[in-house]
Amino acid sequence: MSILKRENWWIWLLLLLFGHGAGDLVLGALLNVYDKDAWYAKWYYWVIGVLCCFFPAVIMLSVFMLQITCQVSAKLNVPGKELYLSPYVWILCLIVPIFGWIAFAVMSIYVRIWNVVMIYRGEGEKYL
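-> structure tokens emitted (128 positions)
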């Protein structure tokens, strides 16, 4: 039984609802989106983030989770990859008050839900 098959979409839905982002990390590992030379693979960045009163480490973890989610969405051919793969769009959403924050939340929900939809449509079966 492979968890990326179309009939196992409900497992990913449960991980989305109750996993608090862990499903995206597992899906990223199954789709090989992790890069050994990326910033998140360097242990000293995380040590510096934790030593700086823990707050930067929380921001780093949030950026890491969002980056992996977007890379998974790109692998699963979620519509709009030109928009959510650009870091400038996410930064602009955080800078602009109210409307940007709402757009940030909507985009974040969009990429997480569409991952499950694309697995339901059979996009995950390409990586078995």
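The first helix runs from residue 9 to 18.
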